Task: structure prediction
Amino acid sequence: MNERKKVTVTELFNKISKNEPITWLTCYDYPTAYFQEEAGIDMILVGDSLGMTMLGYDSTLPVTMDDMIRHTQAVRRGASNAFLIGDMPYMSYQPSVESAIRNAGRFMAEASCDAIKLEGGAEMADRIKGIVDAGIPAFGHLGLTPQSVSALGGFRVQGRGALQAKKIMDDAKALEHAGAIGILLEMVPNRVCKLITENAENCIIMSLGSGPDAHGQLLIYHDMFGLYPKFKPRMAKVFGNAGEIILNGLIQYAAEVKDKTFPQPENYFKIKDEDFEELINLLDE
Ligand code: KIV
Result:
């Protein structure tokens, strides 16, 4: 068991001052959280991407606060020291500052999170401020924001044109001024990400498909291990094909049950001869 110290906001900023990149992964269940904790991953995001990776929806929109809380609790049981971030699902913060504070509070009180994340730029700065004023650390999320995928015209790079890039930079400043401890940049061009990182005064800038010049990197766990059957985004690197290993194992299991090579004696339990004879006698009585 890895006995590392709890990762705190201070620890994350220390890494930035020492120029040590921060590691961040999504996670949605207890066993994966256990492995991520063992591997010393700094931050874990229980993303609303669980709607697609775990629940099989076509988008993140149907995910509820109750779905998020249940999965986040499981992740916390597996990873007690990683910096745990709960992702605010669709319509848990958009309606009002009050809804944002209440639902962020649920992540902290019911799932022992260290922070929350929500999507959106300057228009969400009041939600971030309200949450931070309530004593809850908050991360922003700019660029490709999956909850607005319809308005953005699909899963595509954001900020390629100068005006759009300037808007993302202004949004990043608005979130930082509202008190966000960090901002995730998803599918933003690398030089725009670099500028935002260089301009950040007191804010952790993380990259998902936005290049190497942020303070750290995020990947979707299922993309890293071939566990999402529908597609693999270009920005993801496959670090091992667990999906293929699992599929081959399942095919082999079905074959061995059919040809009766499974189970073998080491896979089941026996009764002593004398106990079995006594049982037969009892049945004959
Ligand atoms: O839900 C999620 O996993 C996310 C990532 C796409 C960043 O928000």
Observations:
- The radius of gyration is 23 Å.
- DSSP finds twelve helices and eight strands in the chain.
- Residues 26, 45, 47-49, 60, 87, 141, 146, 184, 186, 208, 218, 220 surround 3-methyl-2-oxobutanoic acid (CB under 6 Å).
